[in-house]
Design brief:
four-stranded antiparallel sheet, binds zinc ion, binds ligand BES, six-stranded mixed sheet, 457 residues, Alpha-Beta Plaits, 2 domains, alpha+beta, Aminopeptidase
């Protein structure tokens, strides 16, 4: 790559950070209806930025949900086409009092930028936009054809994207998909991710009586929904961390010995991992290592609970209702719909007749796993080496990006997941952050990536 592209990138570091701050200032929280206008404003900001850096055919395309942003630059005759995917929506910020600086007032401390969306995913999108900008401003062209496709519903399960990709199959057609929406293996250890877990998400509502009751007058005469909810949840996993839902493991693809061996060689420090999390002891399915549990085994988790009196002091009451949000992380070859049906049947079986149980399916996503022995992944490896001074390790991840399996199925091309977040980036939690040296190295790596992909004719 011509030196002047790297020079241009290095020269503009401070500007990148200032611009990123404006992007991060938009509270594009897709889960909360009151932020709908901000979500749209964020899509518009993204589109304007694409226009500004010199992309063509910039469009905001409506879906039944939040708009997607599309742009392309297809002037690299004879070179392959890459589809860059990301999401401009972010997670809610609660508990907001635990943030050191306001979530939408991006603040740099010790070389890290703190804001909701800094790592997941605006910072990682912006890294690509700046790499594209460097090529277009400095060379006047891109070495590869690029289609940019950025959605606004990833954090709520990408419910409209599957259909969108199917309907816009030709518009999105490419030779390879590039995604930067995941953490790297560890600080100083860049990685390429070749597997993601899937998801099935539910809300459970339990009603015991018409209204809350005096726990003295009625305690002992009726079932307590909060207690019943606890009993139901307690039946979901055994002491060894195995999910008890009948049929849950039927379609789980067993881990290959070879893969297990590879993972054992990764520089994973379990003691440090536990300490960093602040957990007194780690817990997970018996018979598997921590990395295996997170990357290759399914799990059942409670995401939130709501019931009864939780204010200060004490109140003697039997709540009329109780609610839980739960989710199951899935691995190849589990199917979210099938697992959802198994869960419904199991709850029906274990729930007592003393209460009314309502299950609401929220969102889902299929797991994804790919072969990483292809020339696009190799090209990405070379680019990462240029940007980070180290060749990447190959890992799977425990998180989900629902559209990735759709890309595989509908577009039929490989995805390269080149994420530059860090495992301690606090995604979805207070004080989300992005390491700025990873960001800047990532811009350089992305610029090299386009060149490397362009050579694959
Ligand atoms: N960036 C994450 C996906 C991710 C997380 C990849 C961790 C690798 C490691 C993404 O924004 C995300 O949070 N996805 C949701 C999807 C869900 C709502 C369907 C997730 O995993 O919870
Ligand atoms: Zn996320």
């Amino acid at each position: 790559m011509t030196n002047n592209i790297v020079d241009f990138i290095n020269l503009h570091r401070d500007r990148y950070v200032e611009e990123l701050k404006s992007y991060l200032a938009i509270p594009s929280i897709s889960a909360l209806p009151q932020h709908q206008p901000d979500v749209r404003r964020c899509a518009e900001w993204t589109a304007q930025e694409l226009e500004r850096i010199g992309m063509q055919n910039v469009r905001l395309i409506e879906t039944p949900g939040n708009p997607v942003v599309y742009a392309d630059w297809l002037g690299a005759a004879g070179a392959p086409t890459m589809l860059f995917y990301g999401h401009y929506d972010v997670q809610p910020v609660d508990p907001v009092d635990q943030w050191t600086s306001p979530p939408f007032d991006a603040t740099v401390r010790d070389g890290e930028i703190y804001a909701r969306g800094s790592a997941d995913d605006k910072g990682q999108i912006f890294m690509h936009l700046k790499a594209i900008e460097a090529w277009l401003k400095q060379a006047g062209s891109l070495p590869v054809n690029i289609k940019v496709f950025i959605e606004g519903e990833e954090e709520v399960g990408s419910k409209h994207l599957d259909q969108f990709v199917r309907e816009h199959k030709d518009q999105l057609a490419a030779d390879v998909v590039v995604i930067s929406d995941s953490p790297m293996f560890d600080r100083g250890i860049p990685s390429i991710c070749y597997g993601l877990r899937g998801l099935a998400y539910f809300q459970i509502d339990i009603r015991g009586t018409k209204t809350d009751l005096h726990s003295g007058s009625f305690g002992g005469a009726v079932a307590n929904p909060a207690f019943v909810l606890g009993q139901i949840l307690a039946q979901m996993k055994d002491k060894g961390g195995r999910v008890k839902i009948a049929g849950f493991y039927d379609d789980v693809r067993p881990l290959r010995e070879e893969e297990r061996e590879q993972w054992k060689r990764l520089p994973f420090n379990e003691k440090r991992y536990r300490k960093d999390l602040g957990a007194p002891k780690l817990f997970g399915e018996r018979g598997y290592t921590t990395l295996e549990r997170v990357w290759a085994r399914p799990t059942f988790e409670v995401n939130g609970l709501l019931a009864g009196f939780t204010g200060e002091g004490a109140k003697t009451v039997i709540p009329a209702t109780a609610m839980a949000k739960i989710s199951m992380r899935l691995v190849p070859d589990q199917d979210p719909d099938k697992v959802a049906t198994l869960f419904e049947a199991y709850v029906k079986k274990v729930a007592p007749k003393t209460v009314e149980v309502t299950l609401t399916r929220m969102h889902g996503g299929k797991p994804w796993m790919a072969d990483f022995d292809n020339r696009y992944v190799q090209a990405a490896g070379r680019a990462i080496e240029q940007g980070f001074g180290k060749s990447p390790v190959f890992n799977r991840e425990g998180g989900s990006i629902p559209v990735v399996s759709t890309f595989q199925e509908v577009l039929g091309v490989p995805s390269v997941l080149f994420g530059i977040g860090l495992p301690d980036e606090n995604a979805h939690a207070p004080n989300e952050k992005l390491d700025l040296s990873n960001f800047h190295n990532g811009v350089i790596a992305a610029a090299f990536l386009y060149e490397e992909l362009g050579k694959l004719r």
